[in-house]
Design a protein that fits this description.
elongated, 5 helices, VanZ family protein, about 80% helix, transmembrane
């Protein structure tokens, strides 16, 4: 079980770094590096990224759910604020942050379901 916890926690950190890089690189650099991943719908990209983070975080640290939710909510807000700065020069959109929060909620439901199934098997 220890390996599982370390693997999930590591996956969370790697995913968080990837989300931050994709969210905070200015658009010309993203296009220059050929990053064209995700869905055509920006809100779906936000929701899926934060759902993935919520699932990994909740499975990696099941006793820290409240801290995880606060952390991810603040990360989403910080991304939006930074995207609105001249340095990043992308769009600050409160609805992107709302999509992040919806993704967090959905990810928690998935993680709780996985934990429930795992407890019933064990």
């Amino acid at each position: 079980m220890k390996f599982y916890s370390v693997a999930i926690s590591t996956a969370f950190v790697v995913t968080l770094v990837a989300v931050l890089v994709l969210a905070l690189l200015p658009m010309p650099e993203l296009q220059e590096f050929g990053f064209d991943i995700g869905f055509d719908n920006d809100k779906l990209n936000h929701a899926s990224a934060f759902a993935t983070l919520a699932v990994l975080g909740a499975l990696g640290w099941p006793r820290r759910i409240v801290t995880l939710v606060i952390f991810l909510t603040l990360v989403g807000a910080a991304i939006e604020i930074l995207q609105g700065t001249p340095l990043i020069d992308r769009d600050l959109d409160v609805f992107d942050w709302a999509a992040d929060c919806i993704g967090i909620a959905g990810g928690l439901v998935v993680a709780m379901s996985i934990n429930w199934v795992m407890r019933r098997k064990g």
